[in-house]
Amino acid sequence: MNLEEIKQCAPGEIKACKDAKALEAIRVKYLGRKGELTAALRTLKDLSQPKRRSVGQRANKLKNELELLLEGRLREFARESSQYKETIDITAPGKRVRLGHLHPLTKIGREAKQIFSSMGFAVMDGPEIETEYYNFDALNIPPNHPARDLWDTFWLRQNETKNQRPKTKNTERLLLRTHTSPVQIRYMETHEPPFQIIVPGRVFRYEATDASHEINFYQIEGLMVSKTVSLANFKYVVESFFKQLFNRAVNIRLRPSYFPFVEPGIEVDVSCTRCSGWGCSICKQTGWLEVMGAGMVHPHVFEAAHYNPRDWQGFAFGMGLDRIAMLKYNIPDIRLFYSGDLRFIRQF
Ligand code: PHE
Predict the structure, then answer these.
(1) CA angle, 122 then 128 then 129, to 5°
(2) Is 53 in the active site?
(3) Do residues 117 and 155 share a domain?
(4) Could you identify the atom of ligand 1 that is nearest to the CA of residue 178?
(5) Which one of 38, 81, 144, 225 is least enclosed by Cβ atoms within 10 Å?
(6) 168 CB neighbour count, 10 Å cutoff
């Protein structure tokens, strides 16, 4: 082929190509090592000087043109294929977006906070890693109390290098708080009564797990202190709390009980949320469910916080949030909350 023939044929052939592979064959046919144009360029050396120059220029120009055409066609292929990928079928059914949602414990915690806030309680917070002093001593829990036992408390390992050890007093040993009650002391150390607070938070117990026990769970502590606050006020507060939380009238029963940091100490039962007191498997046929410990703040606790127990009185309570969520949502096993099983979580 001479240059003229190449110029006639090549552009049409490039245009007619349907894919990159065919295009490559055309490139080889004209511009490859044994291609037509390459051969034409090779014959230049046989021409006379002036002719060589003009033919050489034409040949190079044609080579550039063909290269441009080849590139352009290749870009077209790329564009076509990406257009194909971006095709939107507007008749296809939509994709459902799965939204996440709050964990049942988070939900019930928020509801509880909201109800107590509406009754004028401030919401407080405290550390999950506590000292032995705040978790036990300041709450009038004597050193020989079983809660300090290895089997109830997660103690944190101290730095055991010899030269640092003597500086640490025994009461400064660290642990994972076994209840939210230490925040009673922390709050009173820095605030003056009258006040009313709740303290929602995570607590830890070193015990065997079963359907109603976990190594960590959530509590809400309550503390109300003034010159006159009494158990009657407490009764009103818990009654209206449970009425709002369960959305119906519930009966409250107070039983004498013992906690070192209250005097008198009481245990609070609510009428069974499932059978309303008639007796069922959840309340073990008693009609009552145990939901919290409470009582009037012990004078020793006020003293630990540098209050004069002759000036102030107050009630304190602590309830297990998991337990209440189990009642409200009818959940049979506390371990489900922490299992991370989506089949469980998605039911709420
Ligand atoms: N801290 C107690 C517990 O964890 C509950 C409690 C709190 C009891 C306040 C009385 C007063 O069991």
Answers:
(1) 135
(2) no
(3) yes
(4) 4
(5) 144
(6) 12
